[in-house]
Write a structure and sequence with these properties.
single chain, about 325 residues, alpha/beta, 7-stranded mixed beta sheet, 4-stranded mixed beta sheet, 11 helices, 11 strands, about 15% strand
Length: about 325
């Protein structure tokens, strides 16, 4: 039995209606079953997610199932999986998504041939019966590039706005360099500081074509759908992102981008907060005010001029409270 080529990290909580599809498609990734290792993390599920994980683990040549009695969140669960990676490459998948056959076989081959730190791919967004291809926002395909060169321009969609951990594959040297781990304890937006650190500190990447990962959107248990205390983590995540950029040698170059992102996402969450209970809504808005207060005033002013009217109006009262808007 040989060492696997790719380790798949699969954290899930209460994913019983979908996890069987996810696991079944992982069995179809390589012609040689020895090539894949499954690390499944049952993150405090109250349904039979863990039962299905353990049942499927028996069908993999290499498999481990980790059980958390209480949920630790997606970021911490992914980090648990990173400690069990074998082979030269690893990737992530969520418990309600699935892969077309041989996706990982293609990606492992491309990662080896291009010899870069990580690869990114398009994905298919599935909403009910509707499917839509979402393209990774990078013009060049199959070409090795500097991750830093894929961060700008500030007010356009770029690779740091495509933070999905499952949309690609990573060489294990990303782990060795301390770039793979997610901020511990974040329940939402954990991929924002993660993607920025990756693009600022990794040496090489490429966007490639491959069989699709299908991302299921609109699932009721997804944290993108719920409105509770966990949604406040987006503020912590963006504050960490700002700090990562501030510590970079080229902070002045990239700060306008992170400011633009913070304003755009804050506007989005201000609108979402209208449907929250009053106490939670107030906490969300105070968090956003504190976040905006740490942003450089000059960059905020420039970004505001470029924001469209609706988003600017949503932020106006909060920005006046921070002294950034006169």
């Amino acid at each position: 039995m040989r060492t696997p080529l790719v380790t798949v990290i699969l954290p899930a909580k209460d994913a019983a209606p979908f996890i069987g599809t996810t696991l079944e498609t992982l069995l179809r990734q390589f012609d040689d079953p020895d090539a894949l290792k499954l690390v499944a993390i049952d993150d405090g599920s109250s349904d039979d997610t863990g039962v299905q994980m353990r049942r499927y683990a028996e069908r993999f040549t290499h498999a481990e199932v980790i059980t958390n009695p209480r949920a630790v969140g997606l970021a911490s669960a992914r980090n648990q999986g990173l400690a069990h990676v074998e082979g030269d490459a690893f990737c992530f998948i969520d418990g309600d998504d699935w892969m077309q056959p041989h996706r990982l076989q293609v990606l492992a081959s491309r990662l080896r041939d291009l010899d870069c730190d990580f690869l990114r791919t398009d994905h298919v967004r599935v909403t009910g019966a509707e499917r839509k291809i979402v393209r990774a926002p990078f013009a060049w395909r199959g070409t090795v590039a500097s991750p830093r060169d894929a961060i700008l321009p500030a007010d356009d969609t770029t690779m740091v706005d495509y933070p999905y951990a499952w949309a690609g594959i990573f060489h294990r040297r990303i782990i060795d360099r301390g770039l793979a781990a997610f901020p511990e304890g974040l329940f939402t937006a954990e991929d924002r500081p993660w993607i920025w650190r990756l693009h600022l500190q990794a040496e090489s990447f490429a966007v490639v074509d491959a069989p699709a990962l299908l991302y299921r959107r609109g699932v009721s248990t997804s944290l993108t759908q719920v409105r509770d205390q966990r949604q406040l983590d987006f503020v912590r995540a963006l504050a960490q992102t700002v700090e990562i950029v501030k510590q970079d040698a080229e902070a002045a170059r990239f700060m306008p981008k992170v400011v633009w992102t913070a304003l755009a996402l804050s506007s989005h969450h201000m609108v979402r907060s209208r449907r929250m209970p009053p106490l939670l809504r107030g906490e969300m808005r105070r968090g956003i005010r504190d976040l905006l207060a740490i942003l450089p005033a000059r960059e905020v002013a420039v970004a505001l001029e470029r924001l469209d009217g609706p988003r600017r109006r949503v932020l106006a009262r909060t920005l006046r409270g921070t002294g950034e808007m006169r």
